[in-house]
Amino acid sequence: MADTTQPKTTIIVGAGVFGASAALHHITKHPTSSITLIDRDPYTAPTRVAASWDWNKVIRSDYLDPTYTRLGLEAQQLWRSSPVFQEYYHESGVVWISPSTFGRTAIANFEAIGADVDVEMISVEETKKLGGGCFAEADYTGITEVLLDRSSGWAEAKEALGSAIRAAVDAGVRYVAAEVAGLVFDEEGRCAGVRLADGEVLAADRVVLCTGAYTPALLINSAPGDEKMHAGGRILAFGVTEGTVPLEEGKAGMLDTMPVGINDNPLGRGVDAGCLPLPKQGEIKTWGQILFRNTVTHPLTGEVISTPPVAADYNQWDVPPVLKDDARHALKSLFGDSISGEKMNKFRICWDAATPSGDFIVSPHSGCEGLFVATCGSFHGFKFLPVIGKYVVQMLDGELDAELEKKWAWDRELPPTEGNKQWPTREYREFMGQAAAGSGLS
Question: Which prosthetic group or cofactor does it need (predicted)?
Fold first, then answer.
């Protein structure tokens, strides 16, 4: 029997974590629906600008917020068991070095919900012996105990993302590789589809924006004169630097037993730094501690927003020396002088979207009927790839849990960002040594 409860056509813009997962869950729940997934890059492209396109990502459920603890545990079950994802998941364990109470709070969250997780606080000396002593020279300043979660690990990110999209396409989702220039509206102001960069209009009963760092610019480009359409202070595009370093033949064997390493030290540099193993490549991937925005003035409205650079690839491979050093410093924070950052051979700037609270947005857009927003991974969204689409579809169907509906709403109280070290304050141009890095607005 045909599913008559759903709109006939749905367009999902953006094939990153939110878009890929939403497309897969939507076609699974409503197999007669017509779903189009649009992204500027083919999902088979050798590189993409999506934050979720990456060498690898951390998969964990350790959180201060129990909402994400539960969601992380749900996702991990699918990382372990789903034929779409399990091939790309590696349960290496995760070590988190932090002078804060993060570890104890994370464990308390597991205990409160009765989760069966192999996690504990261990001593610095025990940490130094893990993985054949890989973190023996880490920066343990101010550290008396370390969080060890043996039930977590990492995933081959671009491969897992591609697998999710292939599964959606195989199930009937239409994939279109094209640049979306803006939204289109009918005479009543309802969102009626999207306009591509070549002028073609694709019509739909509803549009879901899973557009990450591009979201603020896309909304202004679509309706420059309608402030209620704009993201305002809800969304900030921001970046962090990643790099990879090849290991010498004598050290490459450590990658098979190396846990993911995360270190808050040194505290003065910014947020946490991290290192993940890449055994197939014989490399280690790092991310740095400096978060930055790219503030520009929109030429049509004069509104100040942050958005990725204007280049088609967001200039993601054009990494300034200071940011390369930041990625190198992640190695030092976890490996000391035992692995040299001078041999790092690939660097990338990863652009994502953040909210002031770090919570996602999964919500109808209050300023426009037929328009929905599911984005803002805030650099912790990838781990939820197997499940976040379920909640996006629940939102579209009007079935989302009331607490999540409030937590992820488009219109919600925004906390202050002053004193929030997770909120980027430094500017991309500061590292580029130029007046502006491009707006990405047209």
Answer: FAD
Q: Are residues 240 and 389 in the same domain?
A: no
**Mean of the pLDDT values across residues 120-125?**
98
Q: How far apart are CA 410 and CA 230, in angstroms?
A: 11
Task: Based on the fold, state whether residues 276 and 388 are members of the same structural domain.
Answer: no
**DSSP character string of 274-316:** EEEEETTTTEEEEE-S--EE-EEE-TTT--EEE---SSTTTTT
* Tokens 């199930």 found at: 171
Average of per-residue pLDDT values in the chain: 95
**277 and 336 inside one domain:** yes
Spatial separation of the C-alpha atoms in residues 17 and 386, rounded to whole Å: 9
Of the candidates 195, 235, 165, 144, the residue with the CA atom closest to the CA atom of residue 18: 165
Residue 192 is inside which H or E element, if any? strand 191-196
The CATH number of the domain holding residue 9 is: 3.50.50.60
For residue 7, pLDDT beyond 80: no
pLDDT at 6: 62
Cβ neighbours of 170 (radius 10 Å): 10
Answer for the pair 376, 5: CB distance below 8 angstroms, yes or no: no
User: Alpha-carbon distance 180 to 201, whole Å?
Assistant: 10
Convert 59-93 to b/e letters by CB count within 10 Å (16 or more is b).
Answer: bbbbbeeeebbebbbbbbebbeebebbeebbbbbb
Domain count of the fold of the chain: 2
* Same domain? 16 vs 4: yes
Q: Among candidates 60, 5, 57, 14, which has minimal Cα distance to 33?
A: 5
267/221 same-domain check? no
What is the rounded CA–CA span in Å between residue 9 and residue 34? Answer: 5
Helix segments in 288-401, DSSP class H: 321-335, 388-396
Mean pLDDT calculated for residue range 359-374: 98
Domain of 256 in residue numbering reads as 236-354+415-442
- Of 46, 49, 40, 146, the C-alpha closest to 98 is 146
Q: Which amino acid is at 286?
A: T
Geometric angle at alpha carbon 234, from 231 and 240, rounded to 5°: 105
259 and 360 in contact (C-beta within 8 Å)?
Answer: no
Same domain membership, residue 322 and residue 258: yes
Q: In this structure, are 363 and 247 located in the same domain?
A: no
Pair (262, 200) in one structural domain? no
Tokens 């309802």 found at: 190
User: 140-173: per-residue pLDDT in tens?
Assistant: 999 999 999 999 999 999 999 999 999 999 999 9
With a cut of 70, say whether residue 48 has pLDDT above it. yes
